[in-house]
């Protein structure tokens, strides 16, 4: 390799290769979801190296393929040094993950001298602006980084589409860092370093870690398979005959780099397109639990909808960034190849793809937003009706309360300390009762919300919700009737008999307040655990949807 090579960089949001840019932290925050890097075992890494030539008769040659499944037999330094010398007019691509911070690779990068002003002028991971992309072929001073992200996911069973946990547990977020190195002989080296992350379910859903173990999670093997697929897509697109015919006879180094960057954007757009199709299927399945005509809006269902909304916005931003980079590249290349038929086919295909993604991605957020708006309208109407009812009740009971207060003031001023003492004690006692009742109602609402959402999932019926509600209504009606009888007998017939009945009623109420929620919680927890294990066994049994494979 010529020692006079100049280095420019394109960053797509992942940790940097040379020390000029900081390494991405092990956990990041994006779109309302916290992400952490997928762990790699035994210092394994994935690396593919291949050469691509723009000449019509040349083929793409894979020079090095380390799939990350086993520990490499030789060191990374030895593998890189064993690569054949790069031929003139060829592009050499390095695609991989978890190798960028290895000392062997840093030693290999010494032969790519970077601009010394980079450390001071541009010490961050970059942005998706076109100005950063433009710096790749204009040789502007300092490292100008361009960032982009993409998403993928594990194959998902159609039944798991109805569960938010099953969807988010399978998501993979990829960040790619691309460095373009070029010299006076026309040799171009492109380093594409990936960083894979998955969602932190413990923070997203506030899980116990034991429950998370029942969900399907991306692994090192899943990441390697998707990186291999990305590398194959990149090689296939770069070596396609129409692209070679279009580039035949073009010796402009700027144009060749622009075409290579356009192909990278095209491959990432293909990844996003596949994920958006799966996300649309997930959104349609979630219609059953967010339709304002079927399900009332609660605090817990709103939390789920917010998770979806944040992720949809992140997808929309990702598509917007890629489209903002792809369309200017097409315009620049049209100045060179507008007359060629192959370029017309390429630009038409990419324009249609960008337009399709730009239309389909906002649909997710707009659809969810319209449902939340209808929820808000429905809640506003209910609140207005409740306010009117409360006003009517206040107009009736306020005069009665004032009259009762005036009639009860039959105590002398010197004896008020006893009344104040009793007043404080009664206030504390009633406050304690109110706190207990509020907690019981919160537990009841949480369980009812969970059962209500289960009601609209396939295979579930209304019987469970009806039984659960009746288990609360029947004791309530019995207690209310017993209290009415106790006070009625005490006022009309015998006070002692009424007090005895009231004593037994209070004992029954105390037992019901503690036993009923505990039994309900245990029942709901056992059912939820059993259903989670059934979903886990189903997902591990190999049943997959053909549309998502």
What can you tell me about this protein's structure?
With 549 residues, the protein is α+β, with helices and mostly antiparallel strands. It has 2 domains: 6-376, no CATH class; 440-549. It is 59% helix and 12% strand. It is built from 16 helices and 9 strands. Strands 1, 2, 3, 4, 5, 6, 7, 8 and 9 form a 9-stranded mixed sheet that branches. Mean pLDDT is 72; it is low at 1-27, 113-124 and 539-549.
- pLDDT < 50 runs, ≥5 residues: 1-27, 113-124, 539-549
Helix and strand element order: EEEEEHEHHHEHEEHHHHHHHHHHH
Largest sheet features? 9 strands, mixed
Q: What radius of gyration results from the CA coordinates? A: 33 Å
Structural class: alpha+beta
**Total domain count:** 2
How far apart the termini lie comes to 41 Å
Question: What's the rounded overall pLDDT mean?
Answer: 72
DSSP strand content: 5-15%
Shape: elongated
Say how many strands there are.
9
- Number of continuous helical runs: 16
Q: How helical, in percent, are the residues?
A: 55-70%
Which helices and strands, and how do they pair?
Elements: E1 6-12, E2 27-30, E3 33-37, E4 46-53, E5 61-66, H1 76-81, E6 90-97, H2 103-109, H3 118-121, H4 130-138, E7 149-153, H5 164-168, E8 171-182, E9 188-199, H6 201-204, H7 209-212, H8 220-238, H9 241-247, H10 253-285, H11 287-290, H12 299-337, H13 341-408, H14 416-455, H15 463-492, H16 495-540
Parallel strand pairs: 6-9
Antiparallel strand pairs: 1-8, 2-3, 3-9, 4-5, 4-6, 7-8, 8-9
Helix pairs in contact: 8-10, 9-13, 10-12, 10-13, 12-13, 14-15, 14-16, 15-16
């Amino acid at each position: 390799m010529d020692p006079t090579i100049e280095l420019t960089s394109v960053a797509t949001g992942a940790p940097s290769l040379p020390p000029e840019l900081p390494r991405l932290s092990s956990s990041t925050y994006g779109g309302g979801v916290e992400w952490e890097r997928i762990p790699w075992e035994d210092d394994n890494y994935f690396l593919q190296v291949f050469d691509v030539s723009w000449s019509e008769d040349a083929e793409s040659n894979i020079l090095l393929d380390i799939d990350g499944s086993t520990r490499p037999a030789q060191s990374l330094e030895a593998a890189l040094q064993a690569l054949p010398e790069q031929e003139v007019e060829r592009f050499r691509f390095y695609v991989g993950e978890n190798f960028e911070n290895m000392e062997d690779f840093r030693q290999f990068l010494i032969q790519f001298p970077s601009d010394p002003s980079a450390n001071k002028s541009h010490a961050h991971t970059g942005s998706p602006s076109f100005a950063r992309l433009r710096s790749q072929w204009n040789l502007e001073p300092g490292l100008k980084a361009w960032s982009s992200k993409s998403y993928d996911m594990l194959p998902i069973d159609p039944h798991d589409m109805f569960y938010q946990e099953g969807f988010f547990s399978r998501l993979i977020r990829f960040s790619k860092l691309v460095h373009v190195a070029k010299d006076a002989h026309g040799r171009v080296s492109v380093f594409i370093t990936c960083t894979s992350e998955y969602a932190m379910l413990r923070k997203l859903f506030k899980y116990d870690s034991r429950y998370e173990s029942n969900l399907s999670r991306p692994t090192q093997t899943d990441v390697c398979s998707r990186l291999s697929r990305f590398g194959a897509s990149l090689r296939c697109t770069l070596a396609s005959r129409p692209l070679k015919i279009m580039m035949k006879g073009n010796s402009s180094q700027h144009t060749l780099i622009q075409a290579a960057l356009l192909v990278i954007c095209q491959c990432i757009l293909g990844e996003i397109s596949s994920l958006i199709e799966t996300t649309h299927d997930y959104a349609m399945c979630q219609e059953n639990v967010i339709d304002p005509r079927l399900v009332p809006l609660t605090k817990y269902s709103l939390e789920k909808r917010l998770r979806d909304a944040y992720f949809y916005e992140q997808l929309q931003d990702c598509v917007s960034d890629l489209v903002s980079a792809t369309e200017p590249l097409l315009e620049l290349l049209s100045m060179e190849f507008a007359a060629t038929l192959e370029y017309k086919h390429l630009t038409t295909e990419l324009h249609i793809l960008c337009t399709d993604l730009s239309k389909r991605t906002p649909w997710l957020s707009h659809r969810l937003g319209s449902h939340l708006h209808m929820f808000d309208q429905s809640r506003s109407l209910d609140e207005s009706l409740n306010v009117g009812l409360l006003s009517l009740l206040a107009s009736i009971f306020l005069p009665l309360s004032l009259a009762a207060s005036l009639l009860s003031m039959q105590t002398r001023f010197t004896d008020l300390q006893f009344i104040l003492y009793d007043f404080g004690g009664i206030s504390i006692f009633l406050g304690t009762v109110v706190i207990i009742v509020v907690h019981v109602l919160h537990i009841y609402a949480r369980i009812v919300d969970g059962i209500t959402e289960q009601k609209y999932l396939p295979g579930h019926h209304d019987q469970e919700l009806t039984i659960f509600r009746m288990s609360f209504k029947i004791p309530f009606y019995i207690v209310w009737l017993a209290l009415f009888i106790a006070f009625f007998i005490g006022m009309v017939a015998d006070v002692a008999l009424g007090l005895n009945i009231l004593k037994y009623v209070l004992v029954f109420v105390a037992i019901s307040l503690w036993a009923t929620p505990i039994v309900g919680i245990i029942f709901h927890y056992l059912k939820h655990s059993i259903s989670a294990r059934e979903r886990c066994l189903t997902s591990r049994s190999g049943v997959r949807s053909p549309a998502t494979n």
